[in-house]
Amino acid sequence: MKKLLKTYSPFSRAGVQSAMAYRANFIFFLIGEIFKCFVMYFIWKAVFNSSQNQNFMGFTMEDMTVYVFISFLTGYLSFSDGAFALGEEIVDGSVSMRMIKPCSFDMCFLFQELGNKVINYSIMFVPIVLGVEIYRFVITGTVQFNIVSFVLFFVSLQLAYLINFYFNVCYGFLAFFLKNLWGTNLIKDVIVGFLSGSTIPLAFMPDVLQTVLTYLPFASLSYTPVMIYMNMYSPFQIAFSMLLQAFWLAVFVLVSKMIWHFAMKHLCIQGG
Predict the structure, then answer these.
(1) What dihedral do alpha carbons 146, 129, 115, 159 form, nearest 10°?
(2) Which one of 14, 29, 203, 272 has the minimum C-beta count within 10 Å?
(3) Which residues, other chains included, contact 101 with Cβ-Cβ below 8 Å and sequence gap of 6+?
(4) Residues near 125 by Cβ (< 8 Å), separated by ≥ 6?
(5) CA–CA distance, 24 with 213 (Å, rounded to integer)
(6) Beta bridge partners of 59
């Protein structure tokens, strides 16, 4: 572990420095994400206000409010830019430098993003969780915070990020076949947002579709951590969902390693 940290900690420092160097980009991205969060809140508020049924699929408006903000937090903290970063290196040929460095290509990207995550957590995590818990207390009159659920949520959130990171690494390898991933990346984000339950809770889906989506890796990115936080999963569902997260993480790690080794055997850098 000490050797691992010594090898990759410079990449984390680079991630922190990058976030601080491009403060304007960071701030505007954050503002945009917060704006989208409030848009979702007001959309669901309008839906519930226009409906005679104030309990839809087990969700009240108060539940939906918590869902929207915790889903936003989960999506923000599990966000990974690995596909775009890897795609850029493949397109401009700088990926060749990864071949001569005595370190793992994925760990370099991972630790660089973790440096960025330090900034994200320090700014967003405590304020949003605290705000949500104050809101729940005001609405119900009782403390809803559950330390066990919170710890399980935090572990599930880390698994969600790692799944998303390695999924994006696998996706980034499309740059070997496409000149630019920008357009397809936008489409991917929209599809993943829908399938992960961050746009619409999977509980609102038809039973068959809900079952299918629950087993896919995308539910592990948002829906699973949020449902754990809200105490809407039974102990069995929590154990099953987190084991499913571990399974999909192992799958994407294995696939990313296989694609990388295959690509390195057939990679040809011209002009360098």
Answers:
(1) 40
(2) 272
(3) 108
(4) 73, 77
(5) 37
(6) 56
Answer whether 216's CB lies under 8 Å from 195's CB.
Answer: yes
Which of 232, 7, 18 minimizes the C-alpha distance to 102?
Answer: 7
pTM for the whole structure: 0.90
- Alpha-carbon distance of 17 to 180, in angstroms, equals 26
User: Which residues touch 45 (CB under 8 Å, ≥6 apart)?
Assistant: 61, 65
Query: Residue type at 58?
Result: G
Question: In the chain, which ranges are continuous DSSP H helix?
Answer: 2-21, 23-49, 61-77, 82-92, 96-100, 105-120, 126-140, 147-172, 182-195, 207-215, 223-229, 235-266
Amino acid at 257: K
Strand intervals (E) in 187-258: none
Residue with tokens 């997260």: 245
CA distances from 164 to 130, 170, 234 (A): 25, 10, 25
pLDDT by position in tens, the chain (length 272): 677 777 778 777 877 777 777 777 778 888 888 898 999 999 999 988 888 777 887 888 999 999 999 999 999 999 988 777 777 777 777 776 766 666 777 888 888 888 888 888 988 899 999 999 999 999 888 888 999 999 999 999 999 999 999 999 888 888 777 767 777 888 888 899 999 999 899 999 999 999 999 999 999 999 999 999 999 999 999 999 999 999 999 999 999 989 888 777 656 555 54
Q: Is 254 exposed, middle or buried (0-12, 13-18, 19+ CB in 10 A)?
A: exposed
Closest CA relative to residue 173, chosen from 235, 72, 263: 263
Side-chain-side CA neighbours of residue 221 (13 Å):
26
